[in-house]
Write a structure and sequence with these properties.
With about 200 residues, this protein is α+β, with helices and mostly antiparallel strands. It has 2 domains: about 1-110, GOLD domain (Jelly Rolls, Sandwich), CATH 2.60.120; about 135-170. Helices cover about 40% and strands about 35% of the residues. It has 2 helices and 9 strands. It has helices at about 115-120, 125-195; strands at about 1-10, 10-20, 25-35, 40, 50-55, 60-65, 70-75, 80-90, 100-110. The strands form 2 sheets. Strands 1, 3, 4, 7 and 9 form a 5-stranded antiparallel β-sheet that branches. A 4-stranded antiparallel β-sheet has the order 2-8-5-6, with no helix packed on it. A hairpin with a 5-residue loop joins strand 5 (about 50-55) and strand 6. The longest helix is centred in the last third of the chain and has 72 residues, at about 125-195. It is elongated and about 105 Å long. The protein starts with a strand and ends with a helix. It is a single-pass type I membrane protein. This is TMD11 protein.
């Protein structure tokens, strides 16, 4: 996931990532500040840091740390589900004058262990092949976890659909029985009325 978004200097912005359990998540970000003179975002925002907070689906805080204007954060998910990743600048300016816009460039990689380039450039080819093999094995494990998570979600969705269909069927049966009962009662009432009036 690679994106950018704008926030106010004292504003908090959150994104939601649906992540399987036991998965490493690595995020890289860069902050740019709006310059009123050039009417453009400056390449960097020196002196400005970002609070990064990550919350699990149960509300447990997995990460809460202050980084610089450019940084890398990582965490491991313990539960599958929607994780909330929030960003807020550490600006100490008053809200009245902290009207400056910030642009956050964000790149999030889920379940990806990056190759150690120094190990890859090693002269020993056996070590290089070994590192690449370990990386491939880790990626296979990640794909397996993703598939398990998708199966789990699909099973929950299927159960919910079946329960809903069952409830609709029973409600239709109840409505039919009520309609039949009301019809029989109306016929009986009309019959009794006609008999009492000696029309039949």
């Amino acid at each position: 996931l690679a994106l950018y978004f704008h926030i106010g200097e004292r504003e908090e912005k959150c994104i939601i990532e649906d992540i399987p359990s036991d998965t490493l998540v690595v995020g890289n970000y860069k902050v740019q500040r709006w310059d009123i003179h050039t009417h453009d975002f400056l390449e960097s925002a020196p002196g400005l840091g970002m609070f990064v907070t990550v919350t699990s689906p149960t509300g447990e805080v997995l990460l809460s740390k202050l980084y610089g204007p450019k940084g890398t954060f990582s965490f491991t998910s313990y539960l599958s589900g929607e994780h909330i990743i929030c960003f807020q600048s550490n600006s100490t300016r008053f809200a009245v004058i902290a009207g400056s816009k910030l642009r956050i460039h964000l790149d999030i990689r889920v379940g990806e262990h990056f190759l150690d380039e120094s190990a890859i450039q090693a002269k020993d080819k056996v070590n290089e092949v070994n590192v690449r093999l370990e990386h491939l094995i880790e990626q296979i494990h990640h794909v397996t976890r993703e598939q398990d998570y998708e199966r789990e979600r699909e099973e929950k969705f299927r159960k919910t659909s079946e329960e809903t269909n069952s409830n609709i069927l029973w409600w239709a049966i109840v409505q039919t029985l009520i309609l039949i009962s009301v019809g029989i009662w109306q016929i009986k009432s009309l019959r009794d009325f006609f008999i009492s009036k000696k029309l039949v």
